[in-house]
Design a protein that fits this description.
Helices cover 30% and strands 27% of the residues. The protein is built from five helices and seven strands, in the order αβαβαβαβαβββ. It has helices at 26-36, 54-61, 74-86, 100-109, 127-137; strands spanning 44-48, 66-71, 93-97, 114-119, 141-150, 160-168, 171-178. Strands 3-2-1-4-5-7-6 form a seven-stranded mixed β-sheet, with helices on both faces.
């Protein structure tokens, strides 16, 4: 896996071994950042269900001010921290080893606000609506929320408006704004 653009373009990053983590493909990451590219520089970026952290690390490479990664898998958290260290992003990245509910609650209590929130939960596990409901109730979503999901998985997004949905093979990206 590699970084697609920005200051660390072309650099390889480590990924988590095994089948429990499904990294966002280079193709989908490139498409995502082509869509949100002008919003990234100077932004605060939240990577939920971070897995390898590739999306948040890509945001840092493209000029995000800060990236926070919420992931409950200890092995994945270790890989994200290793990648942040290897790329000299330790001062701009924070890894929270926790489930999504507690991670978002902690960030809200600390007064964090994020310009871009990306979530890529395990497929077909009904995590999307639960996470969106938590985000809707919190104050951390300032601008856009992007959901990566299987193309054939539908979900309600009450409290959000969809302004774009793009399909990339079996993967879809849905772009939401809080109402």
């Amino acid at each position: 896996m590699r970084i697609i653009g920005g200051t660390h373009r072309g650099r390889k990053i480590k990924s988590v071994k095994g089948i429990d983590t499904r990294p966002t493909s280079d193709f989908v990451r490139e498409a995502l950042f082509n869509i949100i590219g002008d919003r990234v520089p100077g932004s605060n970026f939240l990577d939920l269900f971070a897995g390898t952290g590739a999306v948040g690390i890509e945001a840092l490479s493209r000029g995000a001010n800060k990236a926070v990664f919420v992931e409950k898998n200890p092995a994945a958290c270790a890989v994200i921290n290793q990648n942040l260290q290897a790329l000299n992003f330790v001062d701009k990245g924070l890894v929270i080893k926790d489930d999504i509910i507690h991670g978002i609650e902690k960030l809200a209590l600390e007064g964090n606000i994020f310009d871009i929130i990306f979530l890529d939960p395990p497929y077909y596990k009904n995590h999307i609506e639960k996470t969106l409901n938590i985000l809707k109730a919190s104050s951390i979503a300032a601008s856009i929320v992007i959901v990566q999901h299987p193309r054939d998985e539908s979900f309600a997004f009450d409290g959000f408006s969809c302004y774009k949905n793009k399909n990339y093979g079996r993967t879809a990206l849905t772009f939401l704004v809080k109402e």
